[in-house]
Structure prediction request, 598 residues.
Amino acid sequence: MFKKGIFSTLVFAFTCLSAQQKPVQIAFLSDVHFQDLYGSFSDNDFQGIVNPKTGKPTILRTMDSQLHSTRIFNENYFAFLKALDDIAAKGIKIIAMPGDFSDDGQAYNLRGLHQILDQYRKKYGIHFYLTTGNHDPVGPFRQDGGKDDFLAEDGSLLGIYSKKDLIKTKNHIITKDIAESGYIEILDELKDFGFYPDKENIYWSTPFDDHSYSNYSYSNAQHYAEYSNRMYEVSKGFSVPDLSYVVEPIKGVWMIAIDGNTYIPKDLNHNPKDAGNYKGASIGYNNVLTHKQHLIQWVKQVAAEAKKNNKTLIAFTHYPMIDFNDGATNEIKTLLGEKKWQLERVPEEEVAKEFLDAGLQIHFAGHMHINDTGIRKEGDKMLVNVQVPSLAAYLPSYKVLTIHSQNKMEVQTEVLNNVPRFDELFPLYEKEYQALQKTKNTILWNRDILKTKSYHDFMLFHLKELVRLRMIPDDWPNDFIERGKLLSGKDLFLLSQNSKTESTQKIINIDSFQKWGFEDLLLDLYKFQSADELAKKDIPKERLQQYRTLIKSFELNKSNDTFVVRLKAIFKILSLLSNGDPADHFEIDLKEQKIKRL
Prediction:
């Protein structure tokens, strides 16, 4: 009786202790696109142009180039530091970075990134786990390269190139450090951040290591981490690296870092060592299905091993496994065409099916610079794809995963509204703007972006200019845009009406629709594409209600007029993008196969 009492007391104490243990938290920082504003070149004395605000030399790209790109190049440097400070303050000790951690894998940017990661590791005890993206590396092997959109002292363009025959600009410098690194250079510089095993890891392995979990040894893991032991044949005679790995950084949790880059040869009769003979990897998992099948088999083995050993398996990679358009892909394709809106990057349904069958349940991805959650179910299986936004695009955010148990997890989106020093470079952009004003036939960017008071507002302005300068000209039919931009919200309401819906005019104050127009509608559409439900905070409540009215009204509209049909498609897409699965703060219940908004 006495022994039984002691035993019961011990069980109770152990249960209480387990219940009090802090849940495991992992922060996900994707598409940081780090460019070292204050870096240096190993073979050139150039350190940038002097910022009159700080007195510091700065290596930066032009504002004009930023506003034509889906990401910024400069201010994300400060956003990255702010995110790391936030994560450190939360006491989170594990950070996963699902690819595009650098601008284009250039040596000076990799060195700068290494220094920052090392600082936070030493100061806060944070462990970083990286995986590759299509910008790091741009191709499997090192390639000469450069950029012609850096800012020169006089506000004009400055080109920085790795060799002379690439020069395009009057002002230029030459440095090998601007070349695009290949896998081996990235591995050498960043091996300490997941790509190689750490003595503190409980387990670490690659797709090419045939040792089981029970036979793990650090020395064996080191052997398989070597570059020469991480090669596969992407096409006959073409061997390229695969830097995938699985790691157990903390007892009971496995993180599988999947290298989703698939570099397919352009010419099978050409030299396999020619770095220029490979296509880019931006298509993502669609190419994995055809050229990297060993990866799927490895994931299946890892998932089975994790289940056998009672481990919680969390996957992260650069590319999405599930369609990220909230069911609107076919509508977008019909409206704009299959090569618009980055539709070539949408994974085929077979991708989700393959990884669902392989045993994955939770997957964090980047690449698209958007906030989204995608879900696929089949029988008793469920795969959740969490799209991690970029710090270099609207809406700048990162994700925090809290593992409460093997079946219950929580995902929180942390938005970077305020970033110290985000406006540090504004005086240099003033120089650029003044130089552009002297240039004929130049479409000027909107100088008001330099009046923004927060990083959130800066990135929202970036999206607005990106839509105006690139998205609308590139993706939308010109005749449709020219006609549409003359319309107010009231005009759109009247166009939505037909004989069956005319009576609604009597109960709706249509004059209140006059406050916004067609161009506001398109910008809001891109807000929802980028930020999902979080976009609602950046759209007036009255307008959101008016959108709901227009969505219903256009649904009932039976017009066959081409212009009206296109408008109907826009509001159908708007409806789908604004009503997706929870993408801000939510709970994942794997046992019940449910996601609940928190």
Remarks:
- The CA atoms of residues 37 and 567 lie 43 Å apart.
- Confidence is low (pLDDT under 50) at residues 1-20.
